[in-house]
# Entry
Amino acid sequence: MKIRTKLYLSLSLTIILFGIIFVVYGFIQRESFVGLFINEAHEKEVIFDKILILKGAPLETFTFDYSYWDEMVNFIANENESWAKEMINTSVLTNYGINAIWLYKTDYSLLYSIDNLKDNGFKEVPLNKEIINSVFLHKQLCHFFLNTSKGLMEIRGATIHPTLDVERKTPSRGYIFAAKLWGKEYIDELSRLIGGTIQITNPEEKTVVSNQSLEKAIITFSRILTDWNETPLIRLNIRFESYGLKEFNHIFKQRFIIFILFAGSILVIILFIFTRWISMPLRKISFALNSKDPSYIASLKRHNDEFGDILLMIENFLKQEEILRKSEEQFRLVVEETVDYAIFMLDSDGRIVSWNKGAERIKGYRAGEIIGKHFSAFYTSEDIQRGKPEEELKKARVEGRCEDEGWRVRKDGSQFLANAIITALYDQAGNLRGFSKVTRDITKRKKSEDELYRLNRALKTISECNQTLVRATNESNLLHEICRNLVGVGGYRLAWVGFAEQNEKKIVRPVAQAGYEEGYLENLNFTWSDAELGHGPTGTSIRMGKICICKNVLTDPRFAPWRDEAIKRGYASSIALPMTAEGRTFGALNIYADELDAFDEQEVSMLEELTNDLAYGIFALRTHSEREQAQESLKKLHSAIEQTADIVVITNKEGVIEYVNPAFEKTTGYAKEIAIGQTPRIIKSGKHDQRFYEMLWKTILSGNVFRDTLINRRKNGEFYYAEKAITPIIDKEGNITHFVSTDKDITERKEIEKTQRLAQLGELVADMAHEVNNPLMIISGNAQLSLLDGTLNEEIKSNLKIIHEECNRAKDIIQRLLKFSRPSKGERKGTDINQSIESVTKLIEHQFSLSNVKIKKDLKYDLPAIVIDEKQMQEVFMNLLNNARDAMPEGGEIIINTSLDGEYCKIEMKDSGVGMDDKTLARVFEPFFTTKEKGTGLGLSVCFGIIKAHNGKIEFKSQLQKGTTAHIWLPIKAEGV
Amino acid sequence: MNKILVVDDEERIVDITEKFLKMNGFDVVKAIGGEEAIRILSTDTQIDLMVLDMKMPKVNGLGVMQKKTELGKKFPVLLLTGSIDAEKYLEVLKDKGFTAEDILYKPIDLSVLLEKVKQKLNIA
# Structure
């Protein structure tokens, strides 16, 4: 059921509910109204009855009162008319409101009557005598109505009795009747009294209380008036309107209408809401979806409710659907209009169910002709016999797809090469619905593919060969690799490279090959000479430097010498391509194919390019190899020079340094950047005189090698010994362009020599010491023993003492010699060097002052403690100070200075003494070298030994007559101690 | 009276030492060379101190010291040497309780010898 229907249904239900409520309400209202109405009617009836009684009361009273009255009885008895005329006259009629009075005797004869009726009223009661008799037969009083000629008449009658017989037990003395005419005036009066209308009808006519009368609040009821015989005579229909009820009814109706209107408007609003908010959007959505036209819902988009969301979805859906539809449409068009592909559908049994233009074009059938037929119609009879169509369908069913390339038959019986793909189509439930079949005519393509394949193969071969060329590092590998590519990638039967030997025989020597050969190259001697064996493709191409193609080995006369062998090996055609470099053909690339005329124009052009590249590659490799060898040897030379321990310096002819090796930097302390551009003068020590250098230049400028040992100076001022060789470099023209100087730093060797010398000296001294000490001991001992002899005279004693003292001096000398040769390792500990100096100077200051020598100290405080043997160090200081003093016989000043110098503690002792010349300076540390008259020549040797043992350094700087300065460096961080 | 063994390969040095020590009231046993010293050490049990030269042919001072240890002799020793090599011996003898003070360098002052002898023998 649609939402709209449901909405309307629920709306209808609501209306029905409202209707029921109205009906119930109306019913209840009506019921209460009817109740009110009945009450009112009943009330009115009571009132009417009472009015009738009241209005009838004078007639009743008269009849009753005049009928038991003695005078009346008398009258009847006496028949005294005058009494009657006096007592019963017209005024009585008026007083009682009656219209006639009749008096009868017991024999029913009229005695007296009076009336005020017009036009000769009734002399007697309008009843016959029998009726009157029957009326009073059983009762004394009667009341009834009669229709008379004068109109409806109410009549009351009574039997007459004496006054005392109120109960009328005595026999009646006569009868009295009184009548009242119900004329129009009376009826009107009654109507007025009850506020309605009175109608007189036959007793049979009944008044029905109709709805109308109820709605109009008209109350009707009736009263039956009977005659003397109690028979209904007439009916009084009383009708009146109840204004109260009418008003009540009116108000009720108004309220009811308002209620209905209210309910109605609510319903209308609900309806509107339903329509506006639900039904209308739904209808629009429905329209939009049915017509797939989103414009229906465009106006609803801005709704910010569920419909808004739904609309967006619908819009998207419609868009998607539109896209899908278009795509389907396009797809359908594509399929139907495609002419290059036969696209058609098969049912699950393989019968054709659809057909496109392509199918028509390719297969030649029109749709009407083929649809419904089995697709095996396209297969060749052989294929049908083999059951190929069924097999393919089966395969497609099992694997989902079956692709095949093969021959197919057109309507006209012609065949074409087809690529056909059968795809099984399943519905969502997985049931096979049929197959799609796409067939292409690939006859042409196959042909061009074959061509393309060959071209591609050639290109690929070229590409592979080029890569090989790029990577090649070795000629032999390159050639083999190229041949392998030609066979492996190019698909040729054989490829080989032959080099032309440049000798008399002009043999072509195969150097690389790949493919099916089986001794072909070994046994057949190729040459490039102008002879029969040189007229084959290979020889010709080398000799002429041109490409030589043999399209058919069988027929080409040039191939005659090799034909049989070639045919045996399946060579059908061949090509020989000359390899040329720098204008010279040095070989040929030979290719053999197993098909005739295998080398078309394009292929030849590419192979030519390849051969040129190959020739160039070989040429380049050869060049590269030579250059690499040269570079390699250069590199070796460079490494050798760079890494050799010897100093190598290259200068130009003018002696300006152009190159120094790392050994130079290491030995001299001058960095390459500083040295280059300078001359070797930067390392000149000044130890050699001018003549020495003149000799040097003379030697080398004359083109000879100069060799000698030189003393040079490092950047830090140290000297070093260099075993030097300077070689002039002479160019092709015999001009000197450069000088190469190679130095060997032999300082260490010199030092070792010195040390070795000193060690030998030490050994000698040690041996000597022992040998000398024993005799000394004997001399000294005997002298001492003799001194103990108290009998000796003083002179001898004195002599013995001298012997003893001199023995001790000798002992001292020997001790010092020993110390120099093998400085003993005393206790070394962290020492304040200033403190050591102070303690030495304190000891000697006084003594020095006696010789007019002053000691000045400029000690740097906060020097780090250095690890030394303090006793030995003090010995050094003592020696140096003694030397300084000795150098100043006239007195002078010694300045002691301590400082930090890098990682060393530097001590300087400067005197203002006589100084030393260079020769002296060079020998100061030699043992036994002394300038003093009484010197042992061991003092400074010992100092040297001690400082060396401390890994320190000691040297002197001196100028004659100006003074000498001793410099000592001691390492702050003791090493190997 | 304390008995002192004086060992040296130089007979004259032994004689001087003997004469001097005897003059100062010591009983002296002489040994010329290491071999004789070992012989005396093996037989004479009365020795209180040994004045020993280190550098001797055949059996040197160290050999004598070795023997002395083998014989279980506990008396003190003063070493006599003409060479600075004594320091080398000191390295070897250090564990036997020797110090630089126990080494006397030739030529010796006899008064120093006496002092050292007295010191070793605990004589005031």
